[in-house]
Write a structure and sequence with these properties.
Layout (H helix, E strand, L loop, with lengths): L3 H9 L16 E2 H14 L1 H13 L10 E2 L13 H4 L13 H11 L3 H21 L9 E2 L14 H4 L24 H16 L10 E2 L1 H20 L5 H18 E2 L4 E2 L2 E2 L25 H9 L31 E2 H13 L3 H17 L5 E2 L6 E2 L5 H12 L6
Antiparallel strand pairs: 1-2, 3-4, 4-7, 5-6, 8-9, 9-10
Helix pairs in contact: 1-14, 2-3, 2-5, 2-14, 3-5, 5-6, 5-9, 6-9, 9-10, 12-13, 13-14
């Protein structure tokens, strides 16, 4: 496989200053999508990768948050719901997504060193992380709380079912996603109604109040700790003090293990801040702490990853939900299918923890599945069948990145 098909997808999805995840289903700029897209673009056009990230951070709020959607003014408002009129926040939404941006900024700089780019993005990244630490520590334990399932990036995860059950669904809106995707692959109408209700309540609070849904997500927090490690390297490259970033990463990692790790289960679970209870679902978010190189519980977590619940290395990609669970669904959004970005992240974790052969197996599977499915949004972990939209940008971009990386085992 060469990069030609993947590069062509990124070209088609390029708007001139940013890349849409999909021309049909997601016709605007999404926050963590753009970070993953930049990781691939750095091999094709570092200048375009820099532009991607600059465009996203140009929409950063005064309080430091990086919005999860930046709306394209050239796209009709009716193309996506909820659109800019719903959010009443100018050209952005008011939610956030996982903080993978520092890692992307560092990687883009390493591909083609650009001190001016690094110096311009560094204070924006500092403000972004400060917002998460100071405005989102709802539980008082040093962990970020998300206020909406969309903020996890794993919108329809079974981990959110308990907290979402408290939310009364909104009605009277028109879903735009079903015009571009199979209803069997997408969230139910009832769940979508709950998403709309939460977003409207948060909007009406001025994007400040914690509502019914307040959850500490292990994936989000692991990626913040990893982002602080990347920030330390960025600070070093700029000749700035970096110890504070390493200390911040260590604090989040410590709180993550003390709060969300279940030693009996060998897994990280999300925590419902409203009840104080860990949610019972084994989802791929609980595997993302593997990205942390000094994770003390890595052997136990790897045992769970390769065991019957996820069967890492034995199925396609990394299943988003427990393969043995009664509610596992191989096709429905985040309730079982494997996603390319999660596979990419878990592969990074495997490399950190010396699992080179397994990392290579995962890499080879991701590349083959991407090509065979037409760069699908996600796939059935058992059959490899593609689901969701095709020509998906982060699938294409991370394919480019994996092709640029040699096998870990010679």
């Amino acid at each position: 496989m060469d990069v030609t098909r993947a590069a062509a997808i990124l070209d088609r999805n390029w708007l001139g200053s940013s890349t849409v995840p999909s021309r049909s289903l997601y016709p605007h700029q999404w926050s963590w999508d753009s970070a993953f897209i930049a990781l691939g673009l750095r091999h094709l056009s570092p200048a375009r990768a820099r532009r991607e990230l600059r465009t996203l951070f140009a929409a950063q709020w005064a309080d430091g948050r990086v919005p999860h959607i930046v709306f394209d003014p050239g796209t009709p408002p009716e193309a996506y719901f909820p659109g800019p009129g719903f959010w009443r926040a100018g050209r952005t939404s008011g939610l956030v997504q996982p903080p993978v941006h520092a890692r992307a900024v560092l990687a883009v700089h390493e591909a083609e060193p650009d001190q001016e780019f690094l110096a311009a993005l560094y204070p924006k990244l500092v403000a972004w992380h400060d917002y998460l630490r100071t405005r989102r520590d709802a539980g008082g334990r040093g962990l970020v709380a998300i206020v909406h399932p969309w903020e996890s990036g794993m919108d329809n995860s079974p981990a959110w079912d308990g907290p979402l059950a408290r939310v009364t669904p909104s009605t009277g809106f028109v879903r735009r996603d079903l015009a571009h995707g199979d209803a069997a692959d997408r969230p139910s109408d009832e769940d979508y109604g709950r998403y709309v209700r939460l977003a409207a309540d948060y909007r009406d609070s001025g994007y400040r109040a914690f509502g019914e849904f307040v959850v500490e997500d292990p994936g989000f927090n692991a990626l913040l700790a990893d982002a602080e490690l990347a920030m330390a390297e960025i600070a070093d490259a700029l000749g700035l003090p970096s110890s504070g970033h390493r200390e911040a990463a260590a604090r989040v990692a410590k709180a993550l293990q003390e709060t969300l790790w279940d030693s009996a289960a060998g897994f990280f679970f999300a925590r419902d801040v409203r009840t104080g209870a860990l949610t019972p679902a084994y989802t791929c978010a609980g595997l993302l702490p593997l990205v942390l190189p000094d994770l003390g519980v890595a052997p136990a977590l790897l045992a769970t990853a390769t065991g019957p619940r996820f069967r890492l290395g034995q199925v396609h990609g990394v299943p988003s939900h427990d393969l043995t669970a009664a509610d596992f669904d191989p096709a429905r959004y985040w309730r079982g299918p494997s996603w390319f970005n999660v596979g990419w992240l878990v592969r990074q974790g495997l490399l950190h923890h010396g699992e080179h052969a397994l990392a290579d197996r995962l890499r080879d599977d991701l590349l083959a599945t991407a090509e065979e499915t037409g760069f699908a949004e996600y796939c059935d972990p058992f059959t490899g069948e593609g689901h969701g939209t095709r020509s998906f940008s982060w699938t294409a971009a991370l394919t480019v990145d994996l092709l640029a990386q040699p096998a870990a085992v010679a």
